[in-house]
């Protein structure tokens, strides 16, 4: 990607001459292949994205951004797009992520606001979204065995162990499919939520799907980058159940809702163990390793809560955990 070409394209979209005053600077990126830049001119600021079309879902990003905004979710306004080159010019929502501002004194308020936005997102009128069904859920689950167990821990699963994981996947998929299917951001956590004035903005939504109602709730409340006490999380889960019921007119048992949430969390965190290791081993992104112990703790917590998970819990604690503890990145928080 030519930065000069991206800059010239941006200046042309905004009718800024080469000799006009402007400021152009790189902005820190994320786990994708996208590169971000900020252009400031005449008191206004813009974000410019270079997203290789062969790697990134640019059409989806633009369509979903427009759809979410129409549903009352604050997302960056798309100003111009060149799909062939993978260039996107969009509104600048600023730099303030939610994550670094969270503390015990303010998290209830921020999460209440984030869950309100999530509720609107879940009911967005988006069409043609992929379905978060058996195939996608199972493919994600398989990342755990390939990238975390085999490649990172250098452990070879036996046929019996593979069967144990297949059985667990069946349990988790069945639970996911029992739930109301809504619009799911798929990575709705405090690094993808921005504070814009008194509002919360949402970014990184191009992988949205139609999927289980508890998925985004897990992403937020059992964030891979910050952890809160179980009792507090359960209270938030119940708060969202009541809000969802009030909005939709549907009714759900408290215990069933919490079980859906917990099993969805187990699916997500098992997947994330594989994804974070893939980011390290394939893409050289070492920063995600420091978060693996937190994700492991989430897996341990839920695996010990439900009788149907007992076999997996025993195997994970006796076989996988000792191998993880030998890794240089392992450190209990």
Distance between the termini: 40 Å
**Share of helix, binned:** 40-55%
Order of helices and strands: HEEEHEEHHHEEEEHHHHH
* Stretches with pLDDT under 50, minimum 5 residues: none
What proportion strand?
5-15%
User: Cα-atom Rg, whole angstroms?
Assistant: 21 Å
CATH level-3 fold name of the largest domain = Aminoglycoside 3'-phosphotransferase, Chain: A, domain 2
Apparent shape: globular
Q: Please give the number of β-strands.
A: 9
Could you state the CATH homologous superfamily of the largest domain?
Answer: Aminoglycoside phosphotransferase (APH), C-terminal lobe
Helix-strand makeup class: alpha+beta
What is the residue-mean pLDDT, rounded to a whole number?
95
Protein model, in words:
The chain is of the alpha+beta class and 333 residues long. 48% of the residues lie in helices and 14% in strands. The protein has helices at 3-13, 58-70, 107-122, 134-152, 159-178, 215-221, 230-248, 254-281, 292-303, 310-325, and strands at residues 23-27, 35-41, 44-50, 78-82, 87-91, 181-184, 193-196, 199-202, 209-212. Strands 1-2-3-5-4 form a five-stranded antiparallel β-sheet, sandwiched between helices. Strands 6-9 form a two-stranded antiparallel ribbon. It has a two-stranded antiparallel ribbon with strand order 7-8. The protein is globular. The two termini are 40 Å apart. The model has no long low-confidence stretch (mean pLDDT 95).
Topology at a glance:
Elements (H helix, E strand, L loop, with lengths): L2 H11 L9 E5 L7 E7 L2 E7 L7 H13 L7 E5 L4 E5 L15 H16 L11 H19 L6 H20 L2 E4 L8 E4 L2 E4 L6 E4 L2 H7 L8 H19 L5 H28 L10 H12 L6 H16 L8
Antiparallel strand pairs: 1-2, 2-3, 3-5, 4-5, 6-9, 7-8
Helix pairs in contact: 3-6, 3-7, 4-8, 5-8, 6-8, 7-8, 8-9
């Amino acid at each position: 990607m030519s930065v000069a070409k991206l800059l010239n394209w941006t200046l042309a979209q905004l009718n800024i001459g080469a000799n006009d005053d402007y400021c152009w600077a790189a902005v820190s990126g994320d786990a994708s292949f996208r590169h971000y830049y900020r252009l400031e001119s005449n008191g206004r600021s813009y974000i410019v994205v270079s997203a290789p079309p062969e790697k990134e879902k640019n059409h989806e990003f633009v369509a979903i951004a427009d759809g979410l905004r129409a549903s009352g979710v604050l997302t960056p306004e798309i100003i111009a797009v060149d799909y062939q080159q993978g260039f996107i010019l969009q509104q600048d929502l600023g730099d303030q992520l939610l994550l670094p501002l969270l503390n015990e004194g303010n998290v209830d308020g921020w999460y209440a606001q984030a869950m309100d936005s999530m509720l609107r997102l879940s009911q967005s009128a988006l069409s043609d979204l992929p379905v978060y069904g058996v195939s996608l859920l199972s493919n994600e689950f398989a990342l755990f065995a390939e990238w975390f167990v085999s490649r990172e821990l250098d452990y070879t699963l036996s046929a019996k162990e593979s069967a144990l994981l297949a059985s667990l996947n069946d349990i988790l998929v069945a639970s996911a499919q029992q739930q109301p299917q809504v619009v799911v951001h798929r990575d709705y956590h405090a690094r993808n939520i921005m504070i814009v004035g008194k509002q919360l903005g949402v970014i990184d939504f191009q992988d949205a799907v139609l999927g289980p109602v508890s998925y985004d709730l897990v992403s937020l409340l059992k964030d891979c980058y910050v952890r809160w006490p179980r009792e507090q999380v359960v209270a938030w889960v119940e708060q969202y159940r009541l809000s969802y019921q009030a909005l939709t007119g549907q009714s759900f048992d408290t215990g069933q809702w919490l079980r859906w949430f917990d099993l969805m969390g187990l699916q997500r965190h098992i997947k994330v163990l594989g994804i974070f290791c893939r980011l390290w081993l394939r893409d050289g992104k070492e920063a995600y390793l420091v978060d693996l112990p937190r994700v492991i703790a989430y897996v341990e917590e839920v695996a010990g809560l439900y009788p149907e998970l007992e076999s997996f819990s025993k195997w994970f604690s006796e076989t996988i955990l000792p191998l993880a503890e030998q890794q240089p990145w392992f450190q209990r928080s």
